[in-house]
Specification:
By secondary structure, the chain is α+β, with helices and mostly antiparallel strands. It is about 60% helix and about 10% strand. It has 2 domains: about 140 residues, no CATH class; about 80 residues, no CATH class. A 4-stranded antiparallel β-sheet has the order 1-2-4-3. α1 crosses α2, α6 crosses α8 and α6 packs parallel to α9.
Length: about 240
Protein backbone atom coordinates (compact mmCIF):
# COMPACT_ATOMS: atom_id res chain seq x y z
CA UNK A 1 0.00 0.00 0.00
CA UNK A 2 3.07 2.25 -0.20
CA UNK A 3 3.18 5.13 -2.68
CA UNK A 4 -0.52 5.03 -3.50
CA UNK A 5 -0.23 8.60 -4.75
CA UNK A 6 2.86 10.24 -6.26
CA UNK A 7 3.83 13.81 -7.09
CA UNK A 8 4.43 14.40 -10.79
CA UNK A 9 4.59 17.80 -12.49
CA UNK A 10 3.42 19.42 -9.24
CA UNK A 11 0.26 17.30 -9.26
CA UNK A 12 -0.97 14.50 -7.02
CA UNK A 13 -1.44 11.44 -9.23
CA UNK A 14 -1.74 7.69 -9.14
CA UNK A 15 -1.26 5.08 -11.85
CA UNK A 16 -3.28 2.32 -13.46
CA UNK A 17 -0.59 -0.12 -12.29
CA UNK A 18 -1.05 0.85 -8.66
CA UNK A 19 -4.86 0.71 -8.92
CA UNK A 20 -4.65 -2.77 -10.46
CA UNK A 21 -2.31 -3.91 -7.69
CA UNK A 22 -4.31 -2.48 -4.79
CA UNK A 23 -7.74 -3.59 -6.00
CA UNK A 24 -6.49 -7.00 -7.21
CA UNK A 25 -7.50 -6.33 -10.80
CA UNK A 26 -5.71 -7.41 -13.96
CA UNK A 27 -3.86 -4.38 -15.34
CA UNK A 28 -5.34 -5.15 -18.75
CA UNK A 29 -8.82 -4.87 -17.22
CA UNK A 30 -8.02 -1.49 -15.67
CA UNK A 31 -6.61 -0.22 -18.98
CA UNK A 32 -9.75 -1.32 -20.84
CA UNK A 33 -11.98 0.41 -18.30
CA UNK A 34 -10.00 3.67 -18.60
CA UNK A 35 -10.12 3.56 -22.40
CA UNK A 36 -13.87 2.94 -22.31
CA UNK A 37 -14.34 5.90 -19.96
CA UNK A 38 -12.28 8.27 -22.11
CA UNK A 39 -14.02 7.08 -25.29
CA UNK A 40 -17.47 7.76 -23.85
CA UNK A 41 -16.84 11.35 -22.78
CA UNK A 42 -14.16 13.72 -24.03
CA UNK A 43 -14.24 15.63 -20.71
CA UNK A 44 -12.90 12.52 -19.01
CA UNK A 45 -9.72 12.53 -21.11
CA UNK A 46 -8.14 15.34 -19.07
CA UNK A 47 -8.34 13.10 -15.98
CA UNK A 48 -6.04 10.47 -17.54
CA UNK A 49 -2.67 10.69 -19.30
CA UNK A 50 -1.37 7.68 -21.20
CA UNK A 51 2.25 6.74 -20.62
CA UNK A 52 4.43 3.62 -20.59
CA UNK A 53 6.45 1.51 -18.19
CA UNK A 54 9.00 -1.29 -18.61
CA UNK A 55 7.87 -4.69 -17.37
CA UNK A 56 10.01 -7.43 -15.83
CA UNK A 57 10.90 -8.74 -19.28
CA UNK A 58 12.27 -5.35 -20.28
CA UNK A 59 9.31 -4.68 -22.58
CA UNK A 60 7.65 -1.29 -22.82
CA UNK A 61 3.97 -1.51 -21.90
CA UNK A 62 1.11 1.03 -21.72
CA UNK A 63 -0.12 2.55 -18.47
CA UNK A 64 -2.06 5.63 -17.35
CA UNK A 65 -1.50 8.39 -14.85
CA UNK A 66 -4.71 9.77 -13.32
CA UNK A 67 -5.70 12.54 -10.94
CA UNK A 68 -8.10 12.23 -8.02
CA UNK A 69 -11.18 12.71 -10.21
CA UNK A 70 -9.99 10.06 -12.64
CA UNK A 71 -9.36 7.65 -9.78
CA UNK A 72 -12.81 8.30 -8.29
CA UNK A 73 -14.52 7.75 -11.64
CA UNK A 74 -12.51 4.62 -12.41
CA UNK A 75 -13.13 2.93 -9.06
CA UNK A 76 -16.77 4.00 -8.67
CA UNK A 77 -17.97 0.49 -9.50
CA UNK A 78 -15.46 -1.31 -7.26
CA UNK A 79 -17.55 -2.56 -4.32
CA UNK A 80 -17.06 -4.57 -1.17
CA UNK A 81 -15.66 -3.79 2.27
CA UNK A 82 -12.04 -4.14 1.11
CA UNK A 83 -12.65 -1.83 -1.85
CA UNK A 84 -14.15 0.78 0.45
CA UNK A 85 -11.13 0.64 2.72
CA UNK A 86 -8.75 1.02 -0.22
CA UNK A 87 -10.72 4.03 -1.47
CA UNK A 88 -10.51 5.65 1.94
CA UNK A 89 -6.75 5.13 2.02
CA UNK A 90 -6.42 6.54 -1.49
CA UNK A 91 -8.41 9.66 -0.63
CA UNK A 92 -6.24 10.22 2.44
CA UNK A 93 -3.11 9.78 0.31
CA UNK A 94 -4.43 12.29 -2.25
CA UNK A 95 -5.19 14.76 0.53
CA UNK A 96 -1.70 14.46 1.97
CA UNK A 97 0.05 14.75 -1.38
CA UNK A 98 -2.05 17.72 -2.47
CA UNK A 99 -1.16 19.41 0.81
CA UNK A 100 2.52 18.86 0.09
CA UNK A 101 2.08 20.30 -3.40
CA UNK A 102 0.37 23.42 -2.06
CA UNK A 103 2.92 24.03 0.68
CA UNK A 104 5.83 23.74 -1.75
CA UNK A 105 4.43 26.06 -4.41
CA UNK A 106 6.12 29.51 -4.42
CA UNK A 107 3.68 32.01 -2.89
CA UNK A 108 3.47 35.10 -0.69
CA UNK A 109 2.34 34.69 2.95
CA UNK A 110 -1.04 36.11 2.02
CA UNK A 111 -1.42 33.67 -0.88
CA UNK A 112 -0.36 30.78 1.35
CA UNK A 113 -3.05 31.63 3.91
CA UNK A 114 -5.63 31.89 1.15
CA UNK A 115 -4.54 28.61 -0.42
CA UNK A 116 -4.60 26.85 2.94
CA UNK A 117 -8.13 28.09 3.53
CA UNK A 118 -9.14 26.85 0.10
CA UNK A 119 -7.43 23.53 0.77
CA UNK A 120 -9.27 23.10 4.06
CA UNK A 121 -12.59 23.87 2.40
CA UNK A 122 -11.76 21.50 -0.46
CA UNK A 123 -10.80 18.66 1.88
CA UNK A 124 -13.91 19.15 4.00
CA UNK A 125 -16.07 18.90 0.89
CA UNK A 126 -14.19 15.79 -0.20
CA UNK A 127 -14.57 14.15 3.21
CA UNK A 128 -18.30 14.89 3.22
CA UNK A 129 -18.64 13.48 -0.29
CA UNK A 130 -16.62 10.40 0.68
CA UNK A 131 -18.76 9.79 3.76
CA UNK A 132 -21.86 9.99 1.59
CA UNK A 133 -20.35 7.56 -0.93
CA UNK A 134 -19.40 5.12 1.82
CA UNK A 135 -22.87 5.33 3.33
CA UNK A 136 -24.51 4.81 -0.06
CA UNK A 137 -22.35 1.78 -0.89
CA UNK A 138 -22.79 0.30 2.57
CA UNK A 139 -26.56 0.39 2.50
CA UNK A 140 -27.13 -0.29 -1.20
CA UNK A 141 -25.01 -3.40 -1.49
CA UNK A 142 -26.83 -6.68 -1.77
CA UNK A 143 -26.93 -8.87 1.33
CA UNK A 144 -24.04 -11.28 1.88
CA UNK A 145 -24.13 -15.08 1.99
CA UNK A 146 -24.64 -15.17 5.75
CA UNK A 147 -27.64 -12.87 5.55
CA UNK A 148 -29.09 -14.86 2.65
CA UNK A 149 -28.77 -18.04 4.72
CA UNK A 150 -30.52 -16.38 7.65
CA UNK A 151 -33.39 -15.19 5.43
CA UNK A 152 -33.89 -18.71 4.12
CA UNK A 153 -33.72 -20.14 7.63
CA UNK A 154 -36.30 -17.70 9.00
CA UNK A 155 -38.55 -18.31 5.99
CA UNK A 156 -38.46 -22.08 6.51
CA UNK A 157 -39.07 -21.67 10.23
CA UNK A 158 -42.08 -19.43 9.53
CA UNK A 159 -43.61 -21.83 7.01
CA UNK A 160 -43.23 -24.79 9.36
CA UNK A 161 -44.86 -22.77 12.13
CA UNK A 162 -47.78 -21.80 9.89
CA UNK A 163 -48.50 -25.33 8.66
CA UNK A 164 -48.25 -26.91 12.13
CA UNK A 165 -44.83 -28.55 11.95
CA UNK A 166 -43.37 -31.62 10.28
CA UNK A 167 -45.92 -33.98 11.86
CA UNK A 168 -48.95 -32.09 10.57
CA UNK A 169 -51.22 -33.54 7.90
CA UNK A 170 -50.46 -30.55 5.70
CA UNK A 171 -46.74 -31.30 5.75
CA UNK A 172 -47.18 -35.07 5.51
CA UNK A 173 -49.35 -34.61 2.42
CA UNK A 174 -46.50 -32.63 0.83
CA UNK A 175 -48.53 -29.44 0.52
CA UNK A 176 -46.03 -27.16 2.24
CA UNK A 177 -44.63 -26.06 -1.13
CA UNK A 178 -47.84 -24.10 -1.63
CA UNK A 179 -47.07 -22.04 1.47
CA UNK A 180 -43.42 -21.59 0.45
CA UNK A 181 -44.58 -20.32 -2.93
CA UNK A 182 -47.07 -17.90 -1.36
CA UNK A 183 -44.61 -16.39 1.14
CA UNK A 184 -42.02 -16.02 -1.60
CA UNK A 185 -44.45 -14.22 -3.91
CA UNK A 186 -45.66 -11.91 -1.14
CA UNK A 187 -42.06 -11.16 -0.15
CA UNK A 188 -40.94 -10.41 -3.71
CA UNK A 189 -43.94 -8.15 -4.25
CA UNK A 190 -43.37 -6.31 -0.98
CA UNK A 191 -39.68 -5.60 -1.65
CA UNK A 192 -39.84 -5.41 -5.47
CA UNK A 193 -37.16 -8.06 -5.97
CA UNK A 194 -37.02 -11.22 -8.07
CA UNK A 195 -34.98 -13.24 -5.56
CA UNK A 196 -34.20 -13.18 -1.85
CA UNK A 197 -30.53 -12.47 -2.61
CA UNK A 198 -31.48 -9.23 -4.38
CA UNK A 199 -32.41 -7.62 -1.05
CA UNK A 200 -30.22 -4.62 -0.16
CA UNK A 201 -28.40 -4.52 3.15
CA UNK A 202 -30.37 -1.46 4.19
CA UNK A 203 -33.58 -3.54 3.92
CA UNK A 204 -32.25 -6.68 5.63
CA UNK A 205 -33.75 -6.06 9.09
CA UNK A 206 -37.06 -5.06 7.53
CA UNK A 207 -37.02 -8.26 5.43
CA UNK A 208 -36.44 -10.45 8.49
CA UNK A 209 -39.27 -8.69 10.33
CA UNK A 210 -41.59 -9.09 7.33
CA UNK A 211 -41.05 -12.86 7.22
CA UNK A 212 -41.48 -13.30 10.97
CA UNK A 213 -44.77 -11.41 10.91
CA UNK A 214 -46.13 -12.94 7.69
CA UNK A 215 -49.26 -15.05 7.61
CA UNK A 216 -50.92 -16.72 4.63
CA UNK A 217 -54.11 -15.27 3.17
CA UNK A 218 -57.46 -16.32 4.64
CA UNK A 219 -58.26 -19.03 2.08
CA UNK A 220 -54.89 -20.71 2.52
CA UNK A 221 -55.21 -20.55 6.31
CA UNK A 222 -58.55 -22.31 6.07
CA UNK A 223 -57.09 -24.97 3.78
CA UNK A 224 -54.29 -25.64 6.27
CA UNK A 225 -56.77 -25.90 9.16
CA UNK A 226 -59.10 -28.25 7.27
CA UNK A 227 -56.32 -30.63 6.20
CA UNK A 228 -54.73 -30.64 9.65
CA UNK A 229 -58.13 -31.36 11.20
CA UNK A 230 -58.57 -34.52 9.15
CA UNK A 231 -58.13 -37.81 10.99
CA UNK A 232 -56.75 -40.92 9.37
CA UNK A 233 -58.45 -44.28 9.81
CA UNK A 234 -56.10 -47.11 10.64
CA UNK A 235 -57.72 -50.19 9.10
Amino acid sequence: MNDLVIMKSQKALTTSLKVAEVFSKAHRTVLDKIRNLTAQNSAVKKMFVESTYVNRKGQEQPMFYMNRDGFSLLTMGFTGEAALQFKLEYIEAFNQMEQVVRVNLPQTPEEKVDLMAQATSHINKRVTSLEQDVSFLKYNQEIDSGQRYELERVRKQKVMQVIGGAKSNFYQQKKSKKVFAKISKNFHDAFHVARYEDIKKKDYDKAISYIKNWYPPYDLQNEIKEINAQTSLDI
